[in-house]
Amino acid sequence: MLFSDRSRYAENPIEEEDRVAFELQKKGEKIIKLSRGDPPSYFPTPKYILDAYIEALKEHRTTYSKSEGADILREAVAKRYRRLYKLDADPDSVLVTAGVSEALLFIDSAMMNEGDRAILFRPYYSLYLPILKTHGGRPIYEEYDGSKDWNINVERLSKSLKRLKADGKLNRVKYMMITNPNNPTGTVLDRNVLKEVVDLANEYRLLLISDEIYDEIVYNKAKFTSVCQLAKGMPYMVLNGASKVFDSTGFRIGFAITPENDKTSLAIREKLYDYALMRLSVNTPAQYAAAEAINNTVEHKRAINTMVSAIEKRANHATKLLNENPLFSTVRPNGAFYILPKIDLKETKFKDDREFVDSLLKEEDVQVTRGSGFGAPSHFRIVALAPQEILDLAINRINKFCRRHSR
Ligand SMILES: Cc1ncc(COP(=O)(O)O)c(C=O)c1O
């Protein structure tokens, strides 16, 4: 057998409709693609960041960088955490990776033995699962509370952790992952809720990993709290990067930050550093550009404010239109740029969300992503980055499609 057993878990639900879309495009159809969370497709990467990239090339910064990341970028990230969250961050606690994606690969590869566990909250960012499983790990699911605003029901989590402990199942749990602001729900976790989650992680000695890649994409007056503002004296990790907040997905720059100095945190830093050594370096000029993206706070403020206020309008408008559809119920997002309507499938002829999104693409040339790819069956995800007129057109088609197929 050529391939490993684990390789069968390699997949990306977000991209799976791309082949169908590509075939339709070849036939001359124009597809409205609302499936990819790729900000520079609609908000060009700011010029000051591009200039920094070009400058890095002109200065011949084309060698490998240090494996753990160029000093200039690690210092910029540490300073940013001090500025935004008053975290006394040491640049040595910052590992630069090729996107958060690579940090996830390193973490799962470093931590998972066959059958080890990670606690994931549903709906989860879709790539957590295949990355976990291709490294031999298995999920234990907790739930964000969809009956309200997709926050965490702390009482339920507390009971569940107690049960896992009583059943002896916590021993094999390597980490508990949260995503804040969330993809695919757009939820910004409530500070009090987050505090209780941190306390529970501490009580049950769970390594808490908080993926905060959307930390500055927060709107509707919501307030974001980083886990690093609440978790003191316990091991935890924060994942972040340049892709979303610094509008440069294609640069492939991520950060894995392990801020504390306890034995576990230091061991994690060392181990992830060993992983970084194996791939030599992250894209060097992109690291210089990302350092300038972070350090030039005046330009960044301008760029992020423009992007976030556009996203706020687009997401709110799209949510309003979706809520006019009697087949959907939709929680308004307050962060990131995703909307996750729930489909009342029994009022349609579709057996599941996969069939729904597949037919929508084929009949209306609108590409969205099935909720089951995020652990949220009977939902679908829309990326609300496109201009309002495109979102209008797409949602009008979705509503027409629903009317045609509702019972
Ligand atoms: C929650 C979350 N984490 C990680 C990633 C991966 O980002 P990166 O471009 O840094 O690999 C994404 C991308 O959409 C995401 O939504």
Brief synopsis:
The chain is an alpha/beta fold and 407 residues long.
- Name the CATH superfamily assignment of the largest domain: Type I PLP-dependent aspartate aminotransferase-like (Major domain)
- What would you report as the Rg, rounded to the nearest angstrom? 21 Å
The domain tally reads 2
Structure class: alpha/beta
What ions, cofactors and ligands are bound? pyridoxal-5'-phosphate
Average pLDDT taken over every residue: 96
Q: Record the strand order, biggest sheet.
A: 2-9-8-7-6-3-4-5
- From the N-terminal CA to the C-terminal CA, the straight-line distance is 48 Å
Helix content: 40-55%
CATH architecture of the largest domain: 3-Layer(aba) Sandwich
The CATH class of the largest domain turns out to be Alpha Beta
Report on this structure:
Helix 3 packs parallel to helix 9, helix 6 runs parallel beside helix 7 and helix 10 (297-323) runs parallel beside helix 12 (388-405). The longest helix has 27 residues, at 297-323. The protein has helices at 18-26, 47-58, 71-85, 99-111, 128-133, 154-166, 191-203, 263-278, 284-295, 297-323, 353-364, 388-405; strands at residues 32-33, 94-97, 117-122, 138-145, 151-152, 173-179, 208-211, 236-241, 254-257, 328-329, 338-339, 342-343, 366-367, 369-370, 380-383. Strands 2-9-8-7-6-3-4-5 form an 8-stranded mixed β-sheet, with helices on both faces. The chain has 2 domains: 5-44 and 300-401, Aspartate Aminotransferase, domain 1 (Alpha-Beta Complex), CATH 3.90.1150.10; 47-296, 3-Layer(aba) Sandwich (Aspartate Aminotransferase, domain 2), CATH 3.40.640. The protein has 407 residues and is of the alpha/beta class. Helix 7 links the parallel strand 6 (173-179) and strand 7. Bound molecules: pyridoxal-5'-phosphate. Pyridoxal-5'-phosphate is lined by residues 37, 99-101, 125, 179, 183, 211, 213, 241, 243, 249, 254.
